[in-house]
Amino acid sequence: MDVDAGHGAALGRALPSPDVPLTRRLRSLLSWQPPENDPVTTLVKTHRSIHPSGDLATLRHAYRVAENCHRGQMRKSGDPYITHPLAVAEILAEMGMDTTTLIAALLHDTVEDTSYTLEALRGDFGDEVAHLVDGVTKFDKAFYGKAAESETIRKMIVAAGKDVRVLIIKLADRVHNMRTLGARSNASRERIAKATLDVLVPLCDKLGIQWLKRELDDVVLLHLQPDAHERIATHVANRPGWDDYLNDVVRQSKAELRRQRVSATVSPRPRHLYSIWKDTVRGEYTTPFDLPRIAIVIDGTETDCYMALGAIHTKWRPVPGRFKDFIASPKNNLYRSLHTTVTGPDGRTVEVLIRTEAMHRLAEYGVAAPYRFPKLVARGEGAEQLDWLHRVLDWEPEAKDAAVFLSSLRCELAESQIQVFCEGRQLMLPLGATSVDLAYEVGTDSGNRCVAVTINGRTAPMLSELAEGDVVELILDTDGSTGPHRDWLQHVKTSHAQLTLNRRFAEEDAPGMTITDKVRLGRATIGLTLLRKHNRGLASERPLLRLAEQLGYPDLETLLVAVFDRTVDPDDLAQKLVASVDHPD
Which of 55, 113, 256, 398 is catalytic? Predict the structure, then answer.
C-alpha cells in the first residue's frame, strides 16, 4: 500500500474533510463534545487530574486513529482489539505518565498488527511517538523464528537507552495482557507467566516501579501456583481483627511520633499475595507468614527518619536482627527506607517501614516518578536507577547471539544481590556469584590472569561462592600464561564474566550476527548493488518501505535481513526499486 494511502486509511473520519473551509473545520473541532458513551472519557479524566495541561485533543486523535486501524480485529477474549491499547493507556494514565506516552500506548500495536506504517505514524504524531512505538514493536516470528523473542527484547532495551518510556509502555502492556490471560489456553498462560517472571518482573523491579510490580507478581502467582494463590488469598480475606489491630498500631505510632515532634503520615501497609507466599516458602512455614505492617512517611529529611526510628523503638521493643538500613545502603534498584520489626501491642510482631516523602515517591513509581511529579521530583533525581541499563548497553554489542544476550540480561536483572569488597572497592554482585565473577568485575585483565583468591584472609578456590560482606583479595598470574578455564562458564553469574569467557572460548567459525548487524549490512548491500548495477543511490527509504509491503514483509528491517541472508536476490530487488521509482504506475 502506498504510504500516503495508508496514512489516509488510518485517519478515516478522525478529522473534518479538508474540503470544508478552514474556519468551519476549526469551529467544528473546538465545539466538539464527547458523546455520553465516549470510550476515552476515563482516560482523559485520569490524565487531566494529574496533568491539567495535557494535550487532550491529540490524545483523542490518537485514539481515533488506533480505533480505525484495529477496527474488525478481535482479542482472544472476544473483545474488540482496541480495548487493549486503550486499557494500556489507562494504566499509564493512572501511573501519571505524560501525554506523549499515552499517545504511544494507544498506537503501540498499530505498526505491528495493521497496515498503518511507522512512516505514516511518524508523519501524524512525530519522531518521539514513533520511537516509542517502534521500540515496543515485536519482530515477526514467521521471519525470525526462535530468535524473535530474544531479539525483540534486545531491540526494546536498545530503544530504552534513548527513552526509558519504551520499557514503561511495555510493562503496562504486559500488565493488561496478564489481567486478561484467562482467555488463553493453559499452555499459553503458563508460558506467558514464566516469561513475565523471567524478565519483565525483574525489569519492573530494576526500574523501581513497585506500583506495577506488585500486580505482576500476584498475577504470575495466580497462573503458576494457582493453589498457593488461592490459599494466600483466602488467608488475606479471613484475618479476624486484622484491620482493628493495624488501626491501633497506627494510632499509637502517631501519638509517639507527635511526642517526639516528628511530623509524619502513618498508614497500614499490607503485603501483596506474592510477597506473603515468598516469605512463607522461604521460611518453610506451614501456614501463610504474614506479619502486620505499617509505613511511616516522614515530612522532613533523612535525619528525621532516624528520629522516627528512635521513637518507634522507644515505644516498642525491636526484634534483634530484623533491622535494615536501606537509606545508608540502598537496594540494587536504589530503593531507600528503614525497615525494623518490633514487638507491638498484645505482644504481636509488627513490621515498620520508615521513609521520606521523596523516598516514597521513588519507591512507588521509580523512573516514572518525574513524569507523575514533575514539580516535586528534582531534575535528575532517581537517574541512578538506570545505571544497570547503561551497563547493558555497554556490553550489548558483544552479545552476537540472541540467546547469549538474553542469558546475560537475566544476570543483570537479578533481584537478589550481595555486596563484597575487593581492592578497596565496594562491588555489587548477583546472589550466587563466584570469585571468578568478582575478578572479571574488577577488570577483564584481572579475570583472565586470576589464579587464586583469599576470602576474609583464607585461601579459597576460584569457583568459591561469595557471601554478603566478604573481603576478597585476587592473586594474579604474573606472566599471564595460565589463563581462564573453560569450566568457569558453567558457574559464573555476571554478564561481564559470561560474555568475556564466551568470547575467549568461541569456536573458530565466524561469530553470530545480530539482527541489527544484518539490517545494517542488508541496507549496505542494496546501496552497493544500486550503485554498481544502475549507477543510482537510495535518497529515501520510502521506495524500500513500499516494496517491503508489496513483497509481504511485515517491516523494512525484515526485508533487509532477507537481503543479507540471500533469501532475496539484491540484484532483483535493486531492479524492482529502480522500476518503482522510474515507473511508479
Answer: 113
